[in-house]
C-alpha cells in the first residue's frame, strides 16, 4: 500500500501556480519511480538564487561538520556560544552519522 504525503510547494492558487505544482508533482513521480528521494526534487525547485544544492547526497556527519565550521566562523568562542554548540551537538548526535542527509531523515 502506498503512503500518501502532503508536499507544500509554496505556489499561489492561480493557474500559473497550478502549472508549477503539476510540474513538481510530475518530477516527484519520476524521482520515486527511479528510487530517488522525492524531497530533493522539491528542494531543487524551491531553492533561492545563490543557494547551493549539493550535486551528490551528503552524509549527516558531513553536514554536521559543515554546520559546525559555519557556526564557529560566525561567532566568537565564549562560554555561552560553547554551551549553545554543545546543546546543538547533543541533538545532532541522535542522527545516524553515516545516513544520507534528507528532509525525511530530519523530520
Describe the structure.
Helix 1 (15-33) runs antiparallel to helix 2. The protein has helices spanning 15-33, 39-46, 60-73, 79-92, 103-106. Helices cover 55% and strands 0% of the residues. With 107 residues, it is an all-alpha fold.
User: Quick check: average pLDDT?
Assistant: 79
Number of helices: 5
Would you count the extended β strands for me? Answer: 0
Into which percent range does the helicity of residues fall?
55-70%
Can you tell me the residue ranges where pLDDT is under 50 for at least 5 consecutive residues?
none
**Which structural class should the secondary elements be placed in?**
mainly alpha
The biggest sheet amounts to: none
Query: What value does the Rg take, in angstroms?
Result: 18 Å
Strand residue percentage: under 5%
Helix-strand pattern, N to C? HHHHH
Q: What distance separates the N and C termini?
A: 22 Å
Form type: elongated
Keywords:
0% strand; mainly alpha; elongated; single chain; 107 residues
Can you lay out the helices and strands and say which pair or pack?
Layout: H1 15-33, H2 39-46, H3 60-73, H4 79-92, H5 103-106
Helix pairs in contact: 1-2
Quick rundown:
This protein is an all-alpha fold and 107 residues long. The protein has helices spanning 15-33, 39-46, 60-73, 79-92, 103-106.
